[in-house]
């Protein structure tokens, strides 16, 4: 497996479509995605962690040049205590230096327990990752794709015992997948009330590449809600 930095065969997002999406420029040298989960916390992958971040919020353009976007810096990261450096417990929190105000373009994604493994359901992933493996760099504009969640058993048929209950996988048929530049970004699912809930964090793809039809891998957020609550103090709504 390799960590994925979105997306192949993607759609261009409209402004404000993903107000929780953030871009992370890590140590002024490499890129990841993340999601705003409160006025002062960003959720991302542990493999995106660095000593400093430039965090772009409320933007469709990666450079944050649009009116209404916000760029802040942070040096505060909290890794999951059981992160092993090899994609297990691949989750981290970044604390913003001060609380930000929400706008039409900057809003948090909902976190709550989803009482299903979501197999067979369609979820949506967004990011600025490469649009092909041959691309020279990441996309300048925010992209998204809809992916079908598969069972962990199906995913383990490809990746073996590495697939644990704390991971979630999607099919990548039709050339649609996460790719380099998407790591740490949110996978969201529209529940029956019409509201999106974050269910995954972009984590890994097959070493063979993101255009080969192998499943895309995510950290399953359900498994880490207690940890997120303990660190951030966010009161998570129940699943109704």
UniProtKB/TrEMBL annotation:
SUPFAM superfamilies, alphabetized: Trypsin-like serine proteases (SSF50494)
**Record's protein name:** Trypsin-like serine protease
Keyword terms of this UniProt record: Disulfide bond, Hydrolase, Protease, Serine protease, Signal, Zymogen
Q: Is the keyword Chloroplast assigned to this protein?
A: no
Q: Does the keyword Cell membrane apply?
A: no
Tell me a Gene Ontology molecular-function term this record carries: serine-type endopeptidase activity
User: Where do the coiled-coil regions begin and end?
Assistant: none
């Amino acid at each position: 497996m390799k960590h994925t930095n979105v997306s192949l065969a993607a759609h261009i997002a409209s402004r404000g479509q993903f107000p929780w999406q953030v871009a992370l420029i890590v140590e002024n040298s490499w890129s990841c995605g993340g999601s705003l989960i409160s006025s002062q916390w960003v959720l991302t992958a542990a493999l995106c962690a660095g000593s400093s971040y430039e965090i772009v919020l409320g933007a469709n353009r990666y450079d944050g040049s649009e009116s209404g976007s916000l760029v802040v810096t942070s040096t505060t990261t909290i890794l999951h205590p059981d992160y092993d450096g090899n994609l297990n417990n691949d989750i981290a929190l970044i604390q913003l230096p001060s609380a930000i105000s929400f706008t039409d373009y900057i809003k948090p994604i909902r976190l709550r327990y989803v009482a299903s493994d979501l197999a067979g359901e369609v979820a949506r992933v967004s990011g600025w990752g490469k649009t092909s493996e041959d691309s020279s760099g990441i996309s300048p504009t925010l992209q998204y794709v809809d992916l079908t969640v598969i069972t962990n058993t199906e995913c383990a048929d490809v990746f073996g015992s590495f697939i644990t209950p704390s991971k979630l996988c999607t099919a990548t048929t039709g050339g649609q997948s996460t790719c380099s530049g998407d790591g740490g970004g949110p996978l969201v699912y529209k529940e029956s009330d019409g509201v999106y809930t974050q269910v995954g964090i972009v984590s890994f793809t097959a070493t063979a590449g993101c255009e080969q039809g192998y499943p895309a891998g995510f950290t399953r957020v359900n498994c880490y809600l207690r940890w997120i609550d303990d660190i951030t103090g966010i009161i998570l709504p129940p699943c109704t």
